[in-house]
Amino acid sequence: MAATAQPILAEPHIENQTKQNGSVNIQDLHTSAAKLSIAENATVDGSTDPVKTPFINPSSTSKVPTAPPLTSDQSIRYEKLLATVQSWTTKPSSTPNPPEHPLTDSDRIWLTRECLLRYLRATKWNVHEAGIRLQATLTWRHEYGLENHTPEYIAPENATGKQVLSGYDVAGRPCLYLNPGKQNTERSNKQVEHLVFMLERTIDLMPAGQEMLALLINFDKKVGGERPPLWQGKQVLNILQSHYPERLGRALVINIPWLVWPFFKLINPFIDPATREKLKFDQDLRQFVPPSQLLKTHGGDVNFIYDHDVYWPALNKLAVNKRVMMRARWEEAGKKVGESEYYLRGGENEAGTVNGHPS
């Protein structure tokens, strides 16, 4: 395992300042950025063997692929959608009272260039349909209460480490481990809220240029695992496909017991064909994730031990740091709808680009 790093201390006062004043101090941003620019395979608390907290950056062997340039037609469609989105001052409500909600800065920073492109790709470049789906997701994010799902609220669901976010695959996608055998709560909507919370934290940890995540699902035959109910599977699929389009890069599933195979057959018709192609079953995960960032339970070299009191605050502090830096860069660049995620995540401006995307 690589060199030990000093613990990464989050700057909660910066996020509080952002919420209270709508801005942050750029010097605080630079201080946080320096703390995140550290050694190969470093973890949040500097632990190495055993590892108890998330890896901060991808391995040097991971390579984030370069997105292909837009065609002329795609550029025209993007500009049309951008002009439409820039005109929005409200988002729809799912109920007549109130009929709509004001658009917030949290909405505007979410409406990045890459976000608009993801919805265009998901709708086969139909500008009108992409706009409708974007509005539907804005409404869902508000009414589902994402900002109310705090680490403290979600913590009991993750007490056993049934979901772990750590490391990056060979393409620099953050790895979210799902461990159904460690289920510790009764079936409820809060289990779905837990998954959504972890998806949001996975997105927080994406490096510049990467828009997708990797799911690693280990049913662990030694532990077993109860088959998820069909309603819950359909709900999760609907959320993923409706509100997180183009986010799943790969889903790696191992140790599937006979009890669970019928569930996959039942849920298969509801899975989008493009998503279905990304599913891989019982393969050597070392070909997809660098062994130095792959947990031993999944065939890697990382001796990871889940200690909730150590891992949970470390993960959330790291995510806060990332969000704070993105918010500060967004404000510094003018708080624009359609800003580049590449720029917001720390990417430098390039020749022929404006804040990291084609001019």
Radius of gyration: 20 Å
- The order of strands across the largest sheet is 3-4-5-6-7
Overall pLDDT score: 85
Number of strands: 9
Descriptive report:
The chain is an alpha/beta fold and 359 residues long. Helices cover 40% and strands 10% of the residues. It has helices spanning 12-21, 26-36, 72-86, 105-110, 113-122, 127-144, 151-154, 189-204, 230-243, 261-267, 273-276, 308-332, 341-344; strands at 90-92, 100-102, 163-168, 174-178, 213-218, 248-254, 279-281, 353-354, 357-358. The strands form three sheets. Strands 3-4-5-6-7 form a five-stranded mixed β-sheet, with helices on one face. The radius of gyration is 20 Å and the shape is globular.
Provide the descriptors you would attach to this structure in a database record.
globular; five-stranded mixed sheet; two-stranded antiparallel ribbon; 359 residues; alpha/beta; 10% strand
Short description:
This protein has helices at 12-21, 26-36, 72-86, 105-110, 113-122, 127-144, 151-154, 189-204, 230-243, 261-267, 273-276, 308-332, 341-344; strands at 90-92, 100-102, 163-168, 174-178, 213-218, 248-254, 279-281, 353-354, 357-358. It is α/β, with parallel strands linked by helices and 359 residues long.
Q: Topology, please?
A:
Layout: H1 12-21, H2 26-36, H3 72-86, E1 90-92, E2 100-102, H4 105-110, H5 113-122, H6 127-144, H7 151-154, E3 163-168, E4 174-178, H8 189-204, E5 213-218, H9 230-243, E6 248-254, H10 261-267, H11 273-276, E7 279-281, H12 308-332, H13 341-344, E8 353-354, E9 357-358
Parallel strand pairs: 4-5, 5-6, 6-7
Antiparallel strand pairs: 1-2, 3-4, 8-9
